[in-house]
């Protein structure tokens, strides 16, 4: 079995389609949240993800905040960009029904796929929406962040995103999988990032190239102010947030 794991698509339909084309055959899909904000095509992203019929689909902090629920901050250098695209793009392009559909997705969910137990959450089991797990965390800190998972399910894999930085770690009997970001990578590589859990070959991390300038061009059409547009373009082109995270 091959399970496609994606997260942090952020309205970037060209990146998402590149991932789907690059992934080849897959049997199931896990979506770890944040389909909206930053990108120009939230509706197209939502339609594409729905067409994949994910086995697991949890909401991210941007998905939740779009319905005016309590916020949690993301990358400091991108807060104005998130606000601008939320108001000028996401709220204008998604219907009330679509926004509600995003907001009511579970913050944490589990599934058994052919004997493989997977728990999905956007950020971490300890803090489902707001506190991600970073590659530079110590083993002890990762274990503490994952400790909440065992209270919900004895998982073989815990899928957690939010940081936009791909990571694969083991702690005890669990493997932590962060697929990185499809639409807003922040690890210095602007290509769309995703992972495949292969029951025969293990976890495979891949990148997919797409037309970044096309995405930037679509964003410009929404009338986003120049200084915010420069930040969005820089992030997409370089795969880095303009300031240190958190």
Overview of the molecule:
With 246 residues, the protein is of the alpha/beta class. The chain has a single domain, classed as Metallo-dependent phosphatases (Purple Acid Phosphatase, chain A, domain 2). It contains eight helices and ten strands. Strands 3-2-1-9-10 form a five-stranded mixed sheet. Strands 4-5-6-8-7 form a five-stranded mixed sheet, with helices on one face. Strand 1, helix 1 (13-23) and strand 2 (28-31) form a beta-alpha-beta unit. Helix 7 packs antiparallel against helix 8. The longest helix is centred in the middle third of the chain and has 15 residues, at 79-93. The chain is globular. The model has no long low-confidence stretch (mean pLDDT 91).
């Amino acid at each position: 079995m091959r399970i496609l794991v994606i997260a942090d698509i952020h309205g970037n339909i060209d990146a998402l389609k590149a991932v789907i084309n690059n992934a080849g055959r897959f049997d199931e899909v896990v979506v770890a949240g944040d389909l909206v904000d930053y990108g120009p095509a939230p509706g197209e992203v939502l339609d594409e993800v729905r067409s994949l019929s994910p086995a697991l689909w949890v909401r991210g902090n941007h998905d939740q905040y779009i319905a005016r629920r309590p916020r949690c901050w993301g990358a400091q250098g991108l807060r104005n960009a998130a606000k601008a695209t939320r108001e000028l793009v996401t709220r204008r392009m998604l219907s009330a029904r679509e926004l509600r559909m995003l907001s009511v997705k579970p913050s944490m969910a589990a599934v058994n796929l052919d004997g493989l137990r997977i728990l999905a959450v956007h950020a971490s089991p300890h803090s489902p929406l707001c506190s991600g797990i970073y590659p530079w965390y110590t083993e002890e800190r990762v274990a503490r962040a994952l400790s909440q998972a065992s209270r919900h399910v004895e998982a073989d894999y815990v899928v957690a995103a939010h940081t936009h930085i791909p990571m694969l770690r083991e702690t005890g009997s669990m493997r932590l999988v962060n697929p990185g970001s499809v639409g807003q990578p922040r690890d210095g590589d602007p290509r769309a990032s995703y992972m495949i859990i292969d029951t025969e070959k293990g976890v495979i991390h891949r990148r997919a190239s797409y037309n970044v300038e096309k995405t930037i061009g679509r964003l410009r059409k929404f009338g986003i102010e120049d200084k915010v547009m420069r930040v969005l373009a820089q992030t997409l082109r370089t795969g880095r947030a303009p300031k240190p995270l958190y």
